[in-house]
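Hi all, posting the design record for the shared folder.

TITLE: backbone redesign
STEP: 1 of 1
STRUCTURE INPUT:
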């Protein structure tokens, strides 16, 4: 089977990295399969067959009697598109915790992601992007507050406090912006489509 995957990959003109990206597995997984170090699970074979534009049976038939046929279905829980979408929507909504515990609220989606240990790689990537978005929001909020402080200090020193900016202006502007970002991400998640991997 390993030789067949190598030949199919080369026929498609793909590197191991490109195949890993298309199949949503790690490069190390591709390396282990191609070298014969590990026997891939049904889910992985289906993902590879899809990426290599071949069929599952063609690759699976290469497995010996001790291989795929005797293995339990170890496909990740995250293969159900409904579960994936629900998880990402929950993660999005958890970001609204910034209204109650700002600056450390991103720890809640981080916890949810760690708890969801068997998600599809695409889901994990999307979840990490959502968490990064919240961390960037915190950084930008702090930067705006510091800029407002600097501006107010300069105004107070040279213009007798004539044009001071209230700290509530950038604070509430960023809070409102984050609410819109979370809602937009939630809608994007709702429109995402996952490929259902059937057994």
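Okay, here is what came back for every position:
SEQUENCE:
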């Amino acid at each position: 089977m390993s030789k067949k995957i190598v030949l199919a990959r080369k026929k498609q003109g793909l590197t191991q990295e490109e195949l890993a990206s298309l199949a949503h597995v790690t490069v190390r997984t591709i390396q282990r399969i191609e070298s014969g170090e590990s026997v891939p699970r049904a889910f992985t074979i289906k993902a590879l067959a899809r990426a290599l534009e071949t069929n599952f049976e063609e690759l699976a038939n290469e497995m010996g009697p001790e291989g795929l046929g005797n293995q339990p279905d170890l496909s990740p829980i995250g293969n159900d598109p409904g579960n994936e979408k629900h998880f990402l929507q929950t993660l999005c909504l958890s970001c609204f915790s910034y209204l109650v515990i700002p600056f450390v609220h991103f720890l809640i989606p981080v916890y949810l992601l760690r708890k969801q240990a068997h998600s599809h790689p695409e889901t994990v990537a999307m979840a990490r992007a959502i968490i990064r978005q919240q961390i960037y929001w915190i950084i930008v909020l702090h930067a705006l507050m510091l800029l407002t402080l600097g501006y107010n200090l300069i105004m107070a020193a040279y213009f007798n406090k004539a044009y001071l900016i209230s700290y509530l202006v950038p604070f509430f502007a960023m809070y409102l912006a984050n609410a819109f970002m979370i809602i937009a991400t939630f809608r994007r998640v709702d429109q995402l489509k996952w490929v259902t991997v059937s057994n």
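COMMENT: Residues 78-191 form one domain.
Let me know if anyone wants the other runs.
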